[in-house]
# Entry
Amino acid sequence: IENTTSLDLGNIGLTGEIPPEIGNLVNLTHLDLYDNEITGSIPPEIGNLTNLTWLRLYGNQLTGSIPSEIGNLTNLTYLNLIWNQLTGSIPPEIGNLTYLDYLDLKNNLLTGSIPPEIGNLTNLTRLYLYENKLTGSIPPEIGNLTNLTLLILSNNQLTGSIPPEIGNLTYLDYLRLSSNQLTGEIPESICDLNINWSSSSSFRIYNNQLCPPYPTCVEDYVGEQDTSGCD
# Structure
């Protein structure tokens, strides 16, 4: 098995933990363990799998933090860890994964802020971080992700203002920032985006603390805002 390049063990009722010996499978390019009942943490030895392009561990009962060794997987194009119980912060080493096209960490218990190193992932087209417990502000480096078509940060505890650099994301079709604690004014640069503002699936910004005046492109679509802290 040590020469295996693809391991697809998704949805077969696996239990127990991911053994550290998985780090011996250094030829793996695809690792699929989704929709099982795997417990315990992601072993740091996963960082030995430097040929991986695809890593899918979603729909398990994984706990603990995302190991910083994930940053060794510099050939990854797809990383999906959703529907687990992962805690701790997003490691800044994630910024090493410069080939990533798809990053999905939603529906976990992640805390801390979005690392500015996320701005290194210039090949990303989809970024899902919603349904966590992320705090801090949206880093201006998010504006480096000029290939993004989808950015979903809803249902966290993000604070601060929306960075004007968001206007750089000219391929964006979906922008959801709802149910956070964002403050200040929405930057005018948001109107540089070609989003269908009236579509609730494409654009959601309600349930924040954003202050008027709102840019004309979104003024009819900001939804419920707590403006008690506004001038």
In short: The longest strand covers residues 6-8.
